[in-house]
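Inverse folding, one chain.
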């Protein structure tokens, strides 16, 4: 039984004891390699920052292969109950087979605990090799809706009685005539709700205001998927207008001024709003957005989008600042206080057990967790040490292959270097 105390929440504020119990899931594939390094780095930073007065009491909980081997279940109820009870957890990646087998345990955790925001900050760490000319221009925070959309996994396989029933219903009762090959189609459903959209966009605007960000961009494919992605855009603007009033200036307001007074007046109004520190709420269609984040990254700041778009955007943006080896994330319910911190990447099975991959994504997810607990001194120790370590070209294989004169180290050695450089 772990010693320590529970983190609790009162009126949306976390109460963090000096020895909080934090559940962790080691993860599949490279999970054990990166988690071992991350755990040591986080412990060293907390110890150094608070001279032993604070410490994390880790509590292992099981999911994925390790859970299956021990209990015969991929995601035991006990794991969900424990995370629910202790509020904050951190996890390694979990495998999801393609085209059959179990559904994503990562998605199940997010849905079961209603962790409606997948928050993925994307910013450049000095010295990291990147495929773009000015990686430092990319500084965005993704707010990805985390519980709905086609990502929810509501689908039926080709040739089953279930899919036939759904197709018959669509054709006979809903007047659908454009399923191109009904006999050989699988069908997926894409639920996107007003409630789910509004809580996500609300959280993104609140974050932008709190963190002094400049804009929130609603990313959607609403021209094609009018009542899901298109509605996401409309509901997003509604939240902005109805709940944030004079704290925001939206592109809908801009368009209205263009209509009534012309473009010059609209530009002036937007400039004035920016000067007053208002958040600009705008939108972009997903395909062109993927081009513009590469060509004009400075124009984007906080990004609010649906589940699948957010998944694609996360990996694309991670590439711009050096790749998935350094891409942290958090799954958060801002209303209940529940949060699970995890890297953006997956289990990278070909590297499992080789002590080779970059642990930075899960370590920086730990930094996000420490910031969330307001243990900023410990978070800063890790972030600064990461700057120094990468700055001295001590890196894992993924960065070493793109750098000249790098010293390539193993996962565990990178962890050692981070701990050593906390003293520098
Ligand atoms: N939240 C989660 O738990 C997630 C789980 N997954 C699951 O992971 C499994 C594998 O997915 P896959 O599509 O291969 O994606 P992965 O993210 O696991 O790996 C893809 C590639 O990304 C690079 N990479 C990933 N992690 C690291 C790291 N820590 N350091 C350096 N490079 C890294 C490697 O590239 P290279 O070979 O070029 O060096 C790797 O081959 C699937 O079952 C998927 O469902 C996927 C995403 C998230
Ligand atoms: O759950 C999975 O296996 C994949 C999830 C994923 O890619 C993500 O959340 O970014
Ligand atoms: Mg992904």
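Residues assigned per position:
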């Amino acid at each position: 039984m772990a010693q320590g105390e529970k983190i609790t929440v009162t009126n949306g504020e976390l109460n963090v004891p000096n020895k909080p119990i934090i559940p962790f899931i080691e993860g599949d594939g490279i999970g054990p390699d990166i988690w071992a390094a991350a755990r040591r780095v986080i412990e060293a930073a907390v110890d150094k920052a608070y001279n032993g007065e604070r410490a994390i009491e880790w509590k292992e909980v099981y999911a994925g292969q390790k859970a299956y081997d021990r209990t015969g279940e991929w995601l035991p109820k006990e794991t969900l109950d424990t995370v629910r009870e202790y509020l904050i957890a951190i996890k390694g990646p979990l495998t999801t087979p393609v085209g059959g087998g179990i559904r994503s345990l990562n998605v199940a955790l997010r849905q079961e605990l209603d962790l409606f925001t997948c928050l993925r900050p994307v910013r450049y760490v000095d010295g990291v090799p990147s495929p773009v000319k000015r990686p430092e221009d990319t500084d965005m925070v993704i707010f990805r809706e985390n519980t709905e959309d086609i990502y929810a996994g509501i689908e039926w396989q080709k040739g089953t009685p279930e899919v036939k029933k759904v197709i018959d219903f669509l054709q006979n009762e809903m007047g659908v005539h454009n399923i191109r090959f009904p006999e050989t189609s699988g069908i997926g459903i894409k639920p996107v709700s007003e409630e789910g959209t509004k809580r996500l966009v609300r959280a993104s605007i609140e974050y932008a205001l709190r963190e002094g960000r400049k804009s929130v961009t609603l990313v959607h494919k609403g021209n094609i998927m009018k009542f899901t992605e298109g509605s996401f855009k409309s509901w997003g603007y509604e939240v902005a207008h109805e709940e944030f009033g004079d704290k925001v200036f939206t592109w809908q307001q801009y368009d209205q001024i263009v209509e009534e007074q012309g473009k010059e007046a609209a530009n002036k109004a937007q400039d004035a709003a920016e000067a007053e520190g208002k958040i600009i709420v705008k939108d972009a269609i997903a395909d062109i957005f993927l081009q513009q984040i590469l060509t004009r990254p400075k124009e984007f700041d906080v990004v609010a989008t649906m589940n699948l778009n957010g998944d694609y955007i996360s990996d694309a943006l991670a590439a711009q600042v050096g790749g998935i080896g350094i891409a942290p994330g958090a799954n958060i319910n801002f209303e209940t206080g529940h949060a699970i911190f995890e890297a953006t990447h997956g289990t990278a099975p070909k590297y499992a057990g080789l002590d080779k991959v970059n642990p930075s994504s899960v370590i920086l997810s730990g930094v996000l967790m420490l910031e969330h607990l307001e243990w900023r001194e410990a978070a800063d120790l890790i972030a600064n040490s990461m700057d120094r370590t990468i700055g001295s070209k001590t890196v894992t294989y993924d960065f070493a292959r793109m750098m000249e004169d790098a010293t390539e180290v193993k996962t565990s050695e990178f962890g050692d270097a981070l701990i050593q450089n906390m003293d520098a």
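The pocket of magnesium ion (ligand 3) is lined by residues 311, 314-315 (CB under 6 Å). The chain is about 45% helix and 15% strand.
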